[in-house]
Design brief:
The structure holds 3 protein chains of 3 kinds. By secondary structure, chain A is of the alpha/beta class. In chain A, 26% of the residues lie in helices and 26% in strands. The longest helix of chain B is centred in the N-terminal third of the chain and has 16 residues. Chain B folds into 2 domains: 202 residues, 3-Layer(aba) Sandwich (Rossmann fold); 29 residues. Chain B is built from 6 helices and 12 strands. Chain C folds into 2 domains: 322 residues, Uridine Diphospho-n-acetylenolpyruvylglucosamine Reductase, domain 3 (2-Layer Sandwich), CATH 3.30.465.10; 205 residues, Alpha-Beta Plaits, CATH 3.30.70.2190. Chain C has a 7-stranded antiparallel sheet, sandwiched between helices. In chain C, helix 14 runs antiparallel to helix 15. The chains are: A alpha/beta, B alpha/beta, C alpha+beta. Chains in contact: A-B, B-C. The interface between A and B is large, with 93 and 86 residues. Strand 14 of chain A pairs antiparallel with strand 11 of chain B, so a sheet runs across the interface.
């Protein structure tokens, strides 16, 4: 329950403003709370004198079962002058659908944005039973504070049993904030999600850089929260016959909630440029390419094959490519049909980012490079000598 | 050498694996020291929670130039998940360093690698967080920070009023080296060890008991397929094999 | 007068025959063009000296096979060049015709034991084991195959070794740790740690060596000693006696890898250590291990080369400080490294070398990070007296720091090699000129002054670095033209003469091989050279083994 320290409270009314449910108000310069408080924590977070706190006790077993529903954060990105759900949402829907069927609970996608939101109907064709649309002009671009407030409010009101996020850069900023606010267990970067005999969500993830797999549960808290990297789960074709509903969730937000101000943006990835996470063919460069100038060859090969260039953490650190093209544990996870690793040794932190590629080719001078353990075709040799010949041959074999 | 699993017993093999200051945390320390060099009146404190490995990490921080350190060491902290860790750290900071201005953390630990402690700590302390930072400046008479951070499509410059938390993604290309004097001086600096009783936290909220997530099983990852490795010291032949393979798999 | 011990005659030794093996069963490549095409690495070593052809390439797997080869080759009038890991720098394994015999298959660890008398752990290994592997296994306390194939006694020792809390290592640490153990014994190899622990010679306790006859001598240290006249008698299995007279000269008071060992009443084992394979092929070796203590690596910067030398001399005299090794980077070396850092910072792996650093001394000290009392006031005082402070240094003790400091020590010679390789593209006859000279302690300042004055006058591009603790500074001239190379060579001759004149050696580490014979004759009089040749004639009358190494017969 919400605890109000009347000694500390100054009656400033900020809590009144930020509450998404209108459940707290100030009378006689003291805050008071009503029955419709969902314990979402928005007021606690915003009180400047720390007069508010929530005593969160572990949920008793009987109560756990009252939480129902598989929820997914439908993260959006810029697309054709609007904002639409990212590919990872469809991946989460595919897995979420299975979980929902196992538990016989509904599958909901929660989408936050402003009036430029589009493409929400497709979410139903990919498996959602319901889309909760949260529209507000302050949600037009991502901020941790506003998104945390809205998601926490939804969770507190709807009481889902599972809440999934894509482990995208934004997802990894948002999920732990929500988890901490609501005192929930959160497992990051899951590669496996299953329901066990007890109806609990088993969250499987790699640890120690990928050398070990761990299976985790959140026994006492609901919803059970997990983030999942893009390109870990796959999805099938949409089913246009599926039925579902799009409902609106009233969002109450004030500018004061957003503390961080964006003063400039530097685009390193062109709007037209394909996000490597979505690419089907990737040619990736590592330190074995020796110099930045040699990346011309990688780019050329990528273009010849109709794919994109990416790289390992080592060359991002050397400033040869921007971080937007980094593949690996501290970069992006890719899932292309074809991944060609050039001059990449294949440390486990890199493999974690690309091992789900369908076909892997590796070229490296070192016969003991670990990348060869996952390659379908491995060539031990000097890539800088092989690539020009390969590119030439490819150009020749293009037929009109 | 990496930590692996003994496939017979299913337990972790940690012997022979060095404990080091997490590289991302080292970036955070480097940034803190960089700010200290720019503004002489800044005091830096390193804080860590864990068994003896945490001590060596803190010593490294002191050797790098951090002014003092706090080590949270108590059996009761064992088994903490990211929530319990953030909770314990928050309580320590609140009671012992309550007038802090800025908390710097590394993006993720290369063993647990969840990247969750930073944001959870910020939420518990009620301060704003900026993640994926690659550059930090103090502005407005050191009351605000201007941070360059990496986002999916490029970089963002953001500003926020302190106190706040910043998580670092990048640091100097080459790790710094301490002088012998700094290594010796580090041993004279304050390294305060804090145990559970000193924190005003109920035992049930610490360590394994206070964690919301539990590991129920650990196992080695699936061994990946081994493909065909061709030793082609001669580029022409290698290129031929590559084209053949690409054609066969219909990429060309 | 004969020397006696327990009634046995100490200067006499009998060789044993090994079981007969059919030559046809031994793996052999018999065609020179095939060797050139598919086995070309066997024709050269790290010296890049041009070979003079080879008719056979053998891969024996045991002493029986090696003996069969040794017995057969003289019948075909074919010489034998022994090949190990081919990491040598003076052409020792480069064939001048004849048969190449690779001992790479002699790669097993044979035993581990503790000698209660000498209180040492001893490892026995075949000659083809690399010293990197030997050292890693010793430190990690796992010896492949030993726990399965060893005797009950060995297994018991292995258990005890593993239980012991102490870590042990093999001290000789040449930069090239991929060298074969047998090779390091044949050249009496040295590295940075020779400063504190001595050269390979200090650590060899027992060898098995196959003579040109195909028979084997088994020689423990401390059993066979020369007569007062400096002679040994070697008796073969048929009872034939050969008298071998040791050369008589005073060895330089320095780290030395040039020539045949000589001392009054010397141990027979020392004749073969450092003899570059001209008397026999060493097949098995037992070496002692040393206790390991975790170090801290320190690079101390100084305002000038002279101050750095002052520091080294003072540090050496200070008994309370015992560095593992003392290495040197001259002012020109640091400049070259700075340039490399600008081009490719990750290769050097260290932050930019500070501007105030005009010279550097690199040393390791035993260091316990957990210790409560660190008193380095004496060191601080010495550093201060030489114009610097402990704040003007780099130091590290974590494993990954020790590794990058070690890498930093090796980056300079590698950088020089890269520059030479670049220049070689335009001037193919160019090669790196490096010295391997050492002098006794008292002559350090004099030789450094000599080097500097001559090089500065000549206006050549040069760097100086190396094992200054042993007064063994490498001078690398990086020639920009053939003229400069010629000038460099003549300057090196002057250097060699000066070093020898000061009581030093022309080869502290690399040996003589085929490349340094010219300098060899600066060091030894015709009389002594003749005496050395007599030993060769006695032990290998057919002049079969390693033709071209050390002595021109």
């Amino acid at each position: 329950m919400l605890i109000i320290d009347t000694e500390k409270c100054t009656g400033c009314k900020i809590c009144e403003k930020v509450c998404p449910f209108g459940a707290i108000f100030v009378t006689d310069t003291i805050a008071q709370v009503q029955d419709n408080c969902t314990l979402c924590g928005a007021c606690v977070n915003s009180c400047p004198v720390e007069a508010l706190s929530i005593e969160r006790k572990p949920v008793p077993k009987e109560e756990l079962d009252k939480f129902s529903g598989i929820f997914i954060w439908g993260e959006c990105e810029e697309k054709d002058k609007g904002i639409a759900p990212k590919k990872v949402v469809r991946e989460l829907l595919a897995r979420g659908r299975k979980l929902a069927n196992s538990l016989d609970q509904a599958l909901t996608v929660v989408v936050l944005g402003d009036d430029k939101l589009q493409g929400l109907e497709t979410l139903i064709t990919y498996g959602a039973d319901r889309v909760m649309r949260c529209q507000h002009k302050l949600l037009g671009s991502f901020t941790t504070e506003s998104f945390t407030n809205v998601i926490s409010a939804i969770i507190s009101k709807e009481k889902p049993s599972v809440f999934l996020f894509g482990a995208t850069p934004h997802g990894r900023e948002l999920a732990p904030r929500v988890a901490a606010r609501l005192h929930l267990g959160l497992t990051a970067d899951c590669t496996g999600l299953e329901i066990n005999e007890k109806g609990e969500l088993i969250q499987t993830r790699p640890a120690f850089g990928g050398n070990i797999m761990a299976s985790i549960v959140s026994p006492y808290t609901r919803p059970q929260m997990a983030t999942v990297r893009p390109n870990v789960f796959s999805f099938g074709n949409p089913d246009n016959s599926r039925k579902g509903e799009i409902v609106d969730f009233t969002v109450i937000l004030f500018p004061a909630v957003i503390k961080t101000k964006v003063v400039a943006i530097e685009r390193l990835r062109d709007e037209k440029e394909v996000n490597i996470e979505d690419a089907d063919i990737i040619v990736s460069a590592g330190r074995g390419c020796q110099k930045k100038e040699n990346l011309k060859l990688i780019q050329e090969l990528a273009e010849e094959l109709g794919g994109v260039m990416a790289g390992s953490r080592a060359i991002v650190e050397l400033d040869w490519i921007p971080h937007t093209k980094q593949v690996g544990q501290s970069g992006l996870t890719v899932g292309p049909q074809l991944y060609i690793a050039v001059g990449i040794s294949g440390a486990i932190q890199h493999l974690v980012g690309m091992s789900s590629a369908k076909t892997i080719i590796a070229i490296n001078k070192d016969p003991d490079a670990p990348i060869f353990k996952v390659a379908d075709l491995g060539i031990v040799g000097n890539a800088m000598e092989i690539l020009p010949i390969l590119i030439r041959e490819l150009k020749k074999s293009v037929t009109f | 050498m990496d930590v692996t699993i003994n496939p017979e017993t299913g337990t972790l093999i940690r012997e022979g694996v060095d404990s080091i200051l997490n590289p991302f945390c080292e970036y955070a320390v480097e940034m803190g020291l960089d700010l200290k060099r720019r503004y002489s009146d800044i005091e830096t404190v390193a804080i860590s929670m864990g068994p003896s490995q945490a001590r060596t990490a803190l010593m490294r921080c002191l050797e790098m130039g951090v002014d003092r350190a706090i080590l949270l060491a108590d059996m009761k902290f064992a088994g903490s998940d990211t929530w319990a860790t953030a909770f314990t750290l928050a309580e320590t900071i609140r009671t012992m360093e309550g007038d802090f201005d800025l908390i710097l953390v590394g993006k993720q630990a290369i063993d647990g690698d969840t990247a969750q402690v930073g944001p959870e700590l910020s939420e518990i302390l009620g301060i704003p967080q900026i993640m994926y930072a690659v550059g930090v400046e103090l502005i407005g008479n050191k009351k605000k920070v201007r941070v360059k951070r990496e986002i999916e499509t490029g970089n963002e410059i953001v500003e926020v009023k302190l106190p706040g938390l910043i998580s670092l993604s990048k640091g100097p290309m080459i790790r710094s080296v301490s002088s012998f004097k700094e290594i010796l001086d580090a041993r004279k600096k304050e390294l305060r060890v804090v145990t559970a009783p000193e924190l005003n936290i109920n035992e049930n909220e610490l360590g394994l008991k206070g964690s919301f997530t539990q590991v129920v099983k650990i196992f080695p990852p699936q061994v990946k397929k081994t493909g065909m490795v061709i030793d082609s010291s001669e580029p022409q032949g290698a290129a031929k094999k590559l084209i053949g393979f690409l054609k066969e798999r219909k990429f060309v | 007068m004969l020397s006696w011990s327990n009634g046995k005659i100490m200067h006499e030794i009998t060789s044993e025959i090994v079981p007969h093996v059919d030559l046809k069963g031994i793996r052999c490549i018999e065609d020179y063009s095939e060797i050139c095409q598919d086995y070309s690495p066997y024709l050269c070593d790290e010296s890049k000296l041009a070979h003079q052809g080879a008719q056979y390439l053998f891969f024996p797997t045991n002493e029986g096979e090696l003996s069969a080869i040794f017995k057969e080759m003289p019948k075909r009038d074919v010489t034998v060049t022994i090949s190990g890991a081919r990491t040598g720098l003076v052409g020792g394994a480069v064939p001048y015709g004849g048969a190449i015999v690779s001992l790479e298959r002699f790669d097993k660890i044979l035993g581990l034991r503790y000698d209660t008398h000498s209180k040492e752990w001893l490892v026995k290994a075949e000659c083809g084991v690399t010293i990197r592997d030997l050292n890693n296994w010793a430190m990690k306390k796992t010896f492949p195959g030993l726990s399965e194939s060893g005797s009950a006694e060995t297994k018991a020792f292995l258990e005890k070794y593993k239980e012991s809390q102490t870590t042990y290592f093999y001290p000789p640490d040449p930069t090239e740790m991929g060298a074969a153990l047998g090779g390091t014994v044949s050249t009496n190899a040295s590295g940075a740690r020779t400063y504190r622990y001595g050269a390979t010679r200090n650590w060899v306790r027992w060898i098995r060596i196959m003579l040109a006859s195909g028979e084997v001598l088994e020689i423990p240290r401390g059993k066979y000693f020369a007569t007062p006249a400096g002679e040994f008698i070697i008796i073969d299995s048929a009872g034939n006696e050969t008298i071998v007279a040791m050369p008589k000269y005073t060895m330089p008071l320095t780290k030395n890898a040039a020539g045949i060992f000589s001392a009054p009443n010397m141990d027979l084992i020392d004749l073969f250590i450092g003899s570059e394979g001209i008397f026999g092929a060493i097949t098995e070796i037992e070496v002692a291990l040393q206790k390991w203590q975790n170090p801290i690596s320190i690079v101390q910067f100084f305002p000038s080369d002279d101050k750095a030398l002052d520091f080294v001399i003072t540090l050496r005299k200070e008994k309370s400080i015992r560095p593992e090794f003392i290495e040197f980077y001259s002012s020109h070396s640091l400049d070259l490294l700075r340039k490399k850092q600008k081009e490719d910072p990750k290769v050097v792996g260290m932050p930019p070398i500070p501007d105030y650093a005009k010279s550097a001394v690199f040393f390791d000290l035993q260091f316990n990070p957990e210790s409560k009392d660190h008193d380095y006031s004496k060191l601080e005082e010495i550093v201060y007296r030489c114009g610097s402070t402990l704040a003007m240094s780099w130091a590290g003790y974590e494993q990954r720091d020790l590794e990058r400091f070690k890498n930093f020590r090796h980056v300079l010679p590698e950088t020089v090699n890269t520059i030479i390789a670049e220049r070689k593209k335009k001037i193919p006859e160019l090669y790196k000129l490096g010295t391997d000279l050492a002098v006794p302690d008292h002559a350090l300042e004099e030789i450094w002054g000599f080097y500097k004055s001559i090089l500065e006058e000549a206006g050549l591009e040069w760097v100086a670095f190396g094992h200054i603790g042993n007064n063994h500074i490498h001078i690398n001239i990086i020639p920009r033209s053939l003229e400069e190379m010629k000038e460099g060579l003549s300057i090196y001759r002057e250097f060699a003469r000066k070093a020898v004149g000061l009581g030093g050696t022309i080869s502290a580490e690399h040996g003589v091989g085929k490349i340094k014979k010219e300098f060899f004759s600066i060091m030894f009089s015709d009389k002594v050279l003749k005496e050395m040749k007599e030993v060769k004639n006695a032990l290998d009358p057919g002049l079969m083994l390693n033709p071209g190494n050390m002595l021109d017969m």
